[in-house]
UniProtKB/TrEMBL annotation:
Entry-linked Pfam families: Cupin_2
Highest taxon in the source lineage: Bacteria
Classification via Gene3D superfamilies: Jelly Rolls
Organism field: Desulforamulus aeronauticus DSM 10349
Domain Cupin type-2: 42-109
Protein name, entry field: Cupin domain-containing protein
Length: 115
């Protein structure tokens, strides 16, 4: 069993090519007893973004706060609190915050996607 609060979980600043203003928190994964999967929370500062990229594993997303854009499969899709998305493996995608307010979203991936 594992119980915690997001405010108690370390925020890691993402430093990779194509990333700007992004932090990641690993909320639940194998270390907390959820074998094979990882639930993370990403936060993008105003003007922040993830890299435009693809990878073999899928992920699912749920927007908690803020507004943004998901580039997925060649199209831009508006995101707002309550938006959900399924990103299939091997499809190019990018999360972007074009607003001033922070954009936060949950991202669940297979364990291989969080290495």
């Amino acid at each position: 069993m594992f119980i915690n609060h997001v405010n108690n979980i370390e925020k890691i600043t993402m430093n990779a090519p194509g990333v700007n203003g992004a932090t990641k928190q690993t909320l639940i994964g194998p270390a907390q007893g959820w074998e094979g999967w990882v639930m993370r929370q990403f936060s993008l500062a105003g003007g922040g973004h993830t890299p435009r990229h693809s990878h073999p594993w899928p992920h699912i997303n749920y927007v908690l706060s803020g507004k943004g854009v998901l580039f997925l499969g060649g199209q831009e899709h508006t995101l707002e609190p309550g938006s959900v998305a399924y990103v299939p493996g091997d499809v190019e995608h990018q999360f972007m915050n074009k607003e001033e307010q922070e954009l936060s979203f949950i991202c669940i991936v297979p364990e291989e996607g969080d290495k």
